[in-house]
Design goal:
Oligomer: single chain
Strand content: 15-25%
Largest sheet: 3 strands, antiparallel
Distance between the termini: 57 Å
Helix content: 25-40%
Number of helices: 6
Number of strands: 6
Radius of gyration: 18 Å
Order of helices and strands: EEEHHEEEHHHH
Shape: elongated
Length: 135
């Protein structure tokens, strides 16, 4: 499959393929592209295996448009939109390995339901501690 045309909205990059199918990917995976101007987004080149934005140093493979994780899971979306949370410290707080948490967020591994609940419990505990802050 080869993407032959691309366009954007506020949250996604879309691509039409040489077989007529259309795909989309969340721009949460590509923060530099998400925050780019229309002019920066328009300055790209199609390569043999993907799309390259030289000025942004961003590459997207054609194959990634068809990946199962083109749309982040709820857990991934949370960490991708809350960059203020340092994953290594959060992982320590909830008692899991930081590399493992990063692998979950980046889509290299999929957490079990029990692990998802452990992470969600940590997020809720962190939210409660913020809510209880008083000055």
């Amino acid at each position: 499959m080869k993407i032959i045309n691309i366009w954007f909205d506020a949250d996604y990059i879309y691509g039409s393929a040489d077989d007529g199918r259309e795909y989309r990917q969340s721009l949460l995976w590509y923060p530099d592209l998400k925050n780019a101007s229309d002019a920066e987004r328009g300055n790209y080149r199609f390569g043999f295996r993907g799309i390259h934005w030289r000025d942004l140093d961003v590459d997207i493979s054609f194959d990634s448009f068809a990946d199962d994780d083109a749309e982040p899971s709820a857990l991934q979306r949370f960490f991708l939109t809350h960059k203020e949370i340092k994953m290594s410290e959060f992982a320590k707080l909830i008692g899991i390995d930081a590399t493992l948490l990063r692998n979950y967020v980046n889509g290299f591994k999929k957490p079990s339901k029990a692990r998802e609940q452990q992470i969600l419990g940590g997020i809720h505990a962190l939210a409660r501690s913020y809510a209880e802050a008083a000055f």
